[in-house]
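Figure-free illustration: sequence to structure, shown twice.
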Amino acid sequence: DFGRSSELAFVVEPSDDIAVQEQPLILYCQVEGIEPITITWRKNGVMIVDSENAFMLANGSLYVSRFQRVRGDGSSDEGEYDCMAQNHYGLLVSRKAKIQAATMSDFHIHPQNAVVEEGGVARFQCQIHGLPEPVILWHKNSMPVNTDNERYTLLPKGVLQITGLRAEDSGIFHCVATNIANVKFSREARLTVSGSHSTVYKDPMILVGPENLTLTVHQTAVLECIATGNPRPIVSWSRLDGRPIGVEGIQVLGTGNLMISDLTVQHSGIYVCAANKPGTRVRRTAQGSLVVQAPAEFVQHPQSISRPVGTTAIFTCVAQGEPPPQITWLRNGQILETSDHIKLKNNNSTLSIYGINQADEAIYQCLAENSAGSTQASARLTVLWADGLPSPPQGVRAETVSATTIQVSWEKPLQNTKEIIGYVLHIRKAADPVEMEYQEAVSKSTFQQLVTDLEPSTSYSFYIKAYTSRGASKASEVTVVSTLGEVPAMPSLFIKVINSTTVQATWEPSIKLGQHEGFKLYYRKVHLSQYTGPVLLASNITSYNITHLDASVVYEVKLLAYNQHGDGNSTVRFVSLRETVERTVLNPPCDCMKDEQNNKTSTTGIIIGIHIGVTCIIFCILFLMFGYRGRLLMCKNVQEQLSTPQIPRSQRSATGLVLNGATRRDRDDRDLNGKQLDMNELERLFPASPSQEQQEKGIMSAHSLSASHDETQISTLPLDEFSIIEEQPDPLPRNPHDSSPAAPAPNHSPANEG
């Protein structure tokens, strides 16, 4: 049986009930287990003493002879009752039963007179509170309403709906409320059906929409929705979250009321009632929420267990419900208090008992409770203690070896050592809870253990148990010792050049260095032996600027962390500022204020630059066009000169002077007629050397043209008339009497490109 201890368990527990004034009340409680068993009752946590009014029956049930909501002394029989059962194995407490008196208040909503036209909808409502919930019936003209009439709909909350009204529906209506406490009648209301059925169009309208409801699983929910309009609107239902309502347990009452039977938690949600005009999208909506609660129930019960002394016992109790239940643990009927060796985890779902002993042997109960109800389950812990187990190990000592190592030694127990199969060393940080403890197993012939991988400057507790095949000994005395401290780890150092005289040293946050008090920073020129420093920095500092440095030398920067145990290893970095200086010379620092001002006119500068660029391109194109035209003119002159008889070079030189340096009078004459070309202008446009002209074009220099051709007509030379002629050089001695600077003929190279 889940949730039961075989030594003691409940068969029947008291349940919630509603009692009638001045009537007897019986609360049932039945227990099974190993005799003798004692049963007692409590009300609101206080023990009930047998009296004339309340006493316990032979089967353990509680009998209240005359239930009273309020007695003469001001006390009341209402409250929460539970029964307790106890034997020598432990004590159990039942679930709490809530007992309330049956009552009925006066009507706080009475039906109202109504005048409705024929074919319309009439609605009457009564409302009254009571325990249990009163049943409300309707009378017309002092006779019960005929519920077989499909046009009459009675809702559980005291609502009467009449649809498709007719003249015979007129009358006097009132309601009757009944429960075990009383019967009450409401005031009367008259219904008058007037005129004939109207054919005037009316928009759909919802007279009454659904209310917000909070119910418990397995109950029935009725969501009201009554609508009017002409033509008669169609009522439909949906969920606001888009999930389907389903069909199982769903029923429509009357013309649009939604009834959901056998509620589950999944039925919770917001429901939307819509009144639609037939054949159109015209609609009106109303909505209400439905909250379905579920009493607490167990998904996993705690199980009775047996554990040897000194081990750990774990009970698991998982419950569900809506709203989620709260879990409470009891030991032998008393609320369980947590301690160093008793821990609750996972929202009280897991109970762990560490290092159990005889005092922990008891019945443990898990109580799950929410607003919809409560439940309980129990399990028993049996602590195993075998005769002849070893006594606790003796002389436990712990000695610190290093910052991360402690050696623990002990002596064998004084009694019952023959069956020992080994020892278990229990290790825990002194500041940690018991559940953080861990163990290391040691062979039976070993009486010391080196515990490694510990944290520096930390206190640890140790104790030993001796184990046999039948169980463990009691724990030895606990010894506490601390590891040695150690110097901090080496920090990671990074150097960043700020400017020509400043560098910034940065390092990782201090949490990665272990326990330390701060940092020491040193720096020096590499060719010197003396450091500048130390610069002492707090543990929360992670950067430092070193200023007033010499840009022409290399510096060494050293950083270390220190604490009360000494200085840690240092990290060294080298840095040179020379490259920064060179970059500064090549790229002087900007004038930020000036740049900011310049940025304001940058757009104008870009536009001006574009205009200048376009102008340059236009001039280049014009230059190329005129240049090509001038070259064509030169080719034409060459063709004409080549057609004349060749003369010696000495006779051509003077003529060449005329072409290359014509007198002002000749130029003026040519300018007047507009048909002659200024050869100086050609030379200005085409300044290439004669040798370069011959290599690129295969054309002879203008200096070799005949003197007889002192005028040149502007014409175009067709490309098919152009020919390449190789001139054989005929060097002549220079005339020593010619002192004109233009007289020497250039030394032309042969044109071999043709």
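We now fold a second protein in the same way, so the two outputs can be compared directly.
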Amino acid sequence: MLGFLKNPVVITAEINMNLMALIVMGLISRLWGLSYPRAVVFDEVYYGQFVSLYMKRIFFVDDSGPPFGHMLLALGGYLGGFDGNFLWNRIGAEYSMNVPVWSLRLLPALAGALCVPLAYQILVELQFSHCAALGAALLVLLENSLITQSRFMLLESILIFFILLAVLSYLKFYNLQRHSSFSGSWWFWLLLTGVACSCAVGVKYMGLFTYMLLLAVAGLHFWHMIGDQNLSNVSLMCHFLARGLALIIIPVAMYLSFFYVHLTLLYRSGPHDQIMTSAFQASLEGGLARITQGQPLEVAYGSQITLRNVLGKPVQCWLHSHKNTYPIRYENGRGSSHQQQVTCYPFKDVNNWWIVKDPGMQQLVVSNPPRPVRHGHIVQLVHGITTRYLNTHDVAAPLSPHSQEVSCYIDYNISMPAQNLWRVEIVNRESDTDVWKTILSEVRFVHVNTSAVLKASGFIGASLPEWGYRQLEVVGEKLSKGYHQSMVWNVEEHRYGKSQEQKEREVELHSPTQMDISKNLSFMAKFTELQWKILTLKNEDTEHKYSSSALDWITMDTNIAYWLHPTSGAQIHLLGNVVTWTSANVAALVYMCLSLWYLIRRRRKIYDIPEEAWQLWVSAGGICVGGWAVNYLPFFLMEKTLFLYHYLPALTFQILLVPIVLQHLSDHLCRSLLLKSMFSALIVAWFSSVYLVYCTFSPVTYGEPSLSVTELKDLRWKDSWNILIRKQ
């Protein structure tokens, strides 16, 4: 039985030394001197703030994209023991000793290093020679811009890594399709394609471009499978379901999981949660949750409430009134009702409190048992401090003359009766008998007499003059003008009124609530709201010193100064390898011209290259030229501040195209031995120039050694480059 022990156990493994060498060189080029400079470099000032918030578990919203990339950067900080205590307020600020610089920059550097072997593997899977694959990897290795971007706490290198991993995984899956469908390795690479696509989208929405490209390629390949008579209907259905699972369902599930982890980690209130709804804010620890804890859930007649406008733009604000009245005449000569002002006030204040009153009764307290207000009920809103009723009438609003003025009614004993009845309409109701609920219900107040809707002025951001204390305008807007979120309000703070006397009620309005209820939102509700905010929230796009247009990127007419040493001439710039960028552009042009030539000739039944070579040429172009196009052309449609680093994913695909074109020219256009030898010599000379330019610009890629003024001027190969030179 133990006879098998007579012979030793032998494990045989094949090691691709090219691949191993590329991994080592990639790690050296990206990890060498990673902690230098020990100062904030360019957008580290931006991403570092989010890392600190993760460390402190404080909620934030970043309108630049999903949270997965931020979480990876935070993982580096967590592994390095970062406590989040650093003030990310300016580029060039020296890091304090508690900031693990090497750890924070590690994951982007590793991702950048692994892009080198991925480039090699992609060309191998595209059925090109190992020599061409090695050339592609070395071009990525020696590309100064990719090195610079991967050595700091930035997201582009991570994005490019997942993009290349998705492409490689799909190519491996497709090549296995021919002889081992539904095998373990087939499933592995198919599933990894979906995972990598999801991760790419989770890092930055730019990853969506490559994801769409791979879905299109997968759809085209499946279309060809449908025409294969050797495959049964059941087999085709299995292939379709497998692709749907791996390329759609799993990526969507993973994308949701990124937000689930994000929201689980960030459970504390912070400065960014003010743009979220009251319900979302109340689900966070501290902040609004501390204020609203213990509030009654159902709004009843006699309830004391504050009403927050759901839109939250340009700032969040609450329905507010004070004793001051509208001026008898405005600056433009129009008259007003001279009644008490009603505004939307962007701060919490005792004058934000209102009492929900039953029009048929005089009492301003909650009965026992409470009588809840439901959808469609008629109410009066009484200002808590001044006891005047919310009113609107056919008088033009101060800043929006086509809308009605909203006021708190003062009886001047003239022919202007009170019009203070409002119908409660719950916008997000499940039935017409829904109860008006604290925080959860989004309501409109429709004026019974005029059918106008209470609205934070449609003239978004309109501030009243000095007589209105620069507060925001509130108007009555006709429903016929359409629905808008500025017409929707929710109860944020709420208590059951118990004091009928005004003096006692004023004391009550300053008191905390007592009753306990839970207002936890479901994950999907929080995800939907956060996703919508990310997609619609727009920061003020200002012109940046180093911003550029998409046209500037192709010829690298721009650069970005990332860091400057405070005393010496040492500096770091985002600058590409000029030879590589030029070669990539030429390769793309040659590819498109040759493809057009081949297509015209094939239309005339003239076949210049074998069919197998043609299919290889087309498939390589679909990946490389397609990858370049989908990652570059959309920027011409974007209304945002653009920087050179936005071009790096597109550039990576363009770099992969260079050795593909070179091998094609060598194999099919250099027909004689002499031409092949001359072409090979030119390639060696060209590649030597790539290495020489890499070495020339490495001082501004790595930030050392420090260069003299003369040396810095020599690096300004283009007048449009902004190389920083200190005045002597």
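Summary for the second example: Residues 233-265 form the longest helix (33 residues).
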